[in-house]
Structure to design on (499 residues):
């Protein structure tokens, strides 16, 4: 591989980690292994392989969530890049690439913490400049400096990390070609463990029965790849509820101001995400076009109002947008700052927990599984469809929340809560999830087992249920995920040494 290609891989890492300039869609797409693997494949000239490998790795990260500034399960974007790079260059199976990619992804946690610490400095400087009346400091410290730093860091460090792992992997594989089998075996068991972890985390009493049944069915029989997505689509469709209260007419604020505010929020929510303020500085930034309208002839009051909104803030960025619309309405009505602050702080926690339970727990896994299954089966329409559904959901929910929050105030927030609690897709999610994940894991395991050189591929894939039951039992006994992960690698290492 050339230096230029390693630099390009670093740029992919920046694109996936930034999530800026993507209307909030990047977090659910470019940040995931299937997509970072696809981009890696494009750079290396084998997009289909990169997409396939990234999809297999994505199975292990299907339950990934990043809440409250935490990143504890590894960096999925980095895993997709490293795994696809290794698989393409050394022609190793996708499951073997996962074995290497997962430990590498844990390095991303260090990068994440460094980023949030650096952003804390930028936020402090931005607020300092804003208090002096410099409105440009918002753009400088919420977009330009954080994004330039992230671009340089991820391109250089990400590219260098890819180079190091590339060299180490090459040296290890060249010393003993048989090691690929053990890497593949370990990856297969990792995917099985991932299935058990997901089964336990969803706390549905019928999980183990449905997982086992659909896993066996998909091993023994061929299931139409479009059947499950079509079933989910049919069951999930429901009539949109209309808010019956009187719609507020625009006064000082114009509709274009709401769109501008929404545009800033959706593109730069995590641009300068920091430990102390989390989304606080981004919320301030989103209020800039609003206060320019309200206080267009009073810069001093505009600055004071903006500074008020630099306080700590954190919520689910898409489901939580009725908060923004409602706060904009209250600011236009010139409500007391203390009242606005109390309302804002009281709502963000409620919308955060509820929002994550919809986007990160339900919508993202279901649409990502459609992408994964499309990659595994070669039915790319499924992958495109899953991506478009997630993108449309993010844009629709966030923009509607913004507008409804302004139009209807508290009623919009109540309706958003009702939507999250009463949505059919949320109600039926445990069933949809288990049949989807068992189908995907079954397909992946058959393809991975075929690389082991066994004569009875279906029998070997079915035998993996033994590991699933063991892991499920241990997890149910509160054995930590980390202990089981280490155990899987140790088992693979023992087999490599003594066989």
């Amino acid at each position: 591989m050339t230096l230029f290609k390693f630099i390009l891989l670093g740029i992919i890492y920046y694109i996936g980690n930034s999530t800026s300039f993507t209307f909030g869609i990047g977090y659910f797409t470019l940040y995931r292994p299937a997509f970072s693997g696809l981009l890696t494949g494009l750079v290396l000239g084998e997009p289909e392989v990169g997409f396939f490998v990234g999809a297999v790795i994505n199975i292990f990260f299907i339950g990934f969530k990043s809440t409250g500034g935490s990143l504890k399960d590894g960096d999925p974007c980095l895993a997709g890049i490293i795994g696809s790079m290794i698989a393409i260059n050394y022609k190793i199976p996708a499951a073997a690439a996962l074995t290497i990619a997962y430990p590498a992804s844990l390095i991303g946690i260090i990068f994440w913490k460094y980023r949030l610490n650096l952003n804390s400095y930028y936020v402090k400087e931005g607020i300092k400049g804003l208090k002096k009346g410099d409105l440009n400091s918002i753009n400088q410290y919420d977009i330009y400096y954080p994004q330039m730093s992230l671009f340089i860091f991820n391109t250089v460090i990400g590219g260098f990390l890819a180079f190091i792992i590339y060299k180490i992997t090459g040296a290890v594989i060249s010393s003993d070609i048989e090691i690929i089998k053990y890497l593949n075996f370990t990856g297969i068991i990792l995917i099985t463990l991932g299935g058990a972890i997901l089964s336990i985390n969803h706390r549905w009493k019928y999980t183990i029965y449905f997982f086992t049944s659909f896993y066996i069915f998909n091993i023994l029989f061929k299931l139409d790849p479009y059947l499950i997505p079509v079933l989910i689509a049919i069951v999930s469709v429901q009539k949109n509820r209309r808010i019956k209260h009187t719609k507020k007419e625009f006064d000082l604020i114009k509709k274009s101001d709401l769109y501008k505010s929404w545009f800033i929020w959706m593109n730069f929510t995590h641009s300068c995400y920091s430990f102390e303020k989390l989304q606080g500085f981004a919320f301030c930034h989103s209020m800039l076009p609003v206060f320019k309208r309200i206080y267009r002839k009073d810069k001093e009051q505009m600055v004071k109002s903006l500074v008020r909104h630099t306080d700590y803030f954190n919520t689910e960025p898409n489901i939580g947008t009725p908060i923004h619309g409602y706060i904009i309405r209250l600011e236009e009505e010139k409500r007391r700052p203390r009242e606005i602050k109390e309302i804002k702080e009281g709502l963000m926690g409620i919308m955060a927990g509820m929002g994550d339970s919809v986007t990160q727990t339900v919508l993202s896994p279901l649409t990502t599984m459609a992408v994964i299954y499309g990659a595994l089966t070669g039915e790319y329409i499924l992958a495109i469809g899953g991506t478009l559904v997630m993108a449309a959901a993010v844009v629709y929910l966030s923009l509607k929340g913004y507008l409804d929050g302004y139009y209807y105030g508290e009623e919009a927030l109540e309706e958003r809560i009702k939507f999250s609690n009463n949505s059919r897709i949320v109600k039926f999610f445990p069933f949809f999830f288990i049949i989807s994940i068992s189908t995907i894991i079954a397909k992946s395991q058959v393809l991975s087992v075929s690389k082991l050189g066994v004569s009875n591929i279906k029998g070997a894939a079915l035998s993996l249920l033994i590991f699933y039951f063991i892991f499920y039992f241990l997890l149910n006994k509160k054995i930590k995920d980390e202990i089981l992960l280490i155990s899987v690698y140790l088992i693979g290492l023992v087999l490599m040494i003594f066989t």
